[in-house]
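Weekly sync, protein design subgroup
Attendees: M.S., D.O., the rotation student, P.L. (late)

Item 1: inverse folding check
M.S. brought a backbone from last month's batch and wanted to see whether the design step gives back something sensible before we order anything. D.O. pointed out we never logged the input encoding, so this time it goes straight into the notes. C-alpha cells as presented (182 positions):
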C-alpha cells in the first residue's frame, strides 16, 4: 500500500483546460522525476471548474523528500505562477493509504466514492460484500502531514474507492470523473 493524495482543485471559470494542458505538458514528468507516481487525472463531470487527481508515494518519508524536490525544483519554479493563476482553491486534499488508481485505457467515465463511515467494523463488512480489489479501496492515513506547505484535510476518517458499487449506508459523495488522456 502506498501513501496517496486525492487532490481536488477548484478553478477559476474557464481555466480547467489551461491547467490540464500545463499539467500534462510539465507537471506529470516533472513530478515523476522527483519520485512521485502520478495517477489518474480527471475532469469532474458535474463541476466544470474542478480538476481531480491522484499522486502516490511509497511512504511518508519519501513523500516529504519528493515534495521538497519537486516544489523547490525548476519545473515548479518556472510554471507555478501560471498554475496558481488557474486555481481558487487547492487545499481540498485527502491523505490516504491505498493502492493508488489510474483508469483503464479508453475509460470514458470513472465513479469515485468518498465515504465517511461511522463504524469501521460495519464498513469492513460492507466492503467485503460490495467492493472487489478492482475498486482500489483507500483509507485515511492518520499520520501527521510532514509537508505542511501543502495542507491536507484532517479530523475525518474516510474511505475512497473507484467504480460502481452498492451505495454505502453512511454519508458519502460520489464523483463522476472523466479521465484526462495525454
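Designed sequence read out in the meeting:
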Amino acid at each position: 500500500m502506498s501513501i496517496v493524495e486525492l487532490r481536488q482543485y477548484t478553478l477559476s471559470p474557464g481555466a480547467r483546460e489551461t491547467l490540464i494542458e500545463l499539467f500534462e505538458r510539465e507537471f506529470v514528468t516533472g513530478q515523476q522525476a522527483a519520485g512521485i507516481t502520478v495517477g489518474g487525472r480527471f475532469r469532474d463531470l458535474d463541476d466544470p471548474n474542478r480538476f481531480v487527481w491522484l499522486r502516490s508515494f511509497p511512504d511518508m518519508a519519501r513523500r516529504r523528500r519528493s515534495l521538497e524536490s519537486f516544489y523547490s525544483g525548476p519545473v515548479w519554479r518556472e510554471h507555478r505562477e501560471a498554475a496558481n493563476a488557474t486555481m481558487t482553491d487547492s487545499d481540498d486534499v485527502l491523505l490516504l493509504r491505498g493502492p493508488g488508481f489510474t483508469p483503464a485505457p479508453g475509460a470514458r467515465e470513472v465513479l469515485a466514492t468518498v465515504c465517511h463511515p461511522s463504524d469501521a467494523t460495519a464498513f469492513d463488512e460492507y466492503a467485503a460484500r460490495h467492493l472487489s480489489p478492482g475498486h482500489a479501496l483507500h483509507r485515511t492515513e492518520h499520520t501527521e502531514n510532514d509537508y505542511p506547505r501543502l495542507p491536507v484535510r484532517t479530523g475525518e476518517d474516510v474511505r475512497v474507492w473507484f467504480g460502481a458499487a452498492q451505495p454505502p449506508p453512511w454519508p458519502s459523495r460520489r464523483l463522476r470523473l472523466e479521465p484526462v488522456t495525454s
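Discussion: The CA atoms of residues 19 and 86 lie 6 Å apart. The mean pLDDT is 97.
Action: P.L. to compare against the previous round before Friday.
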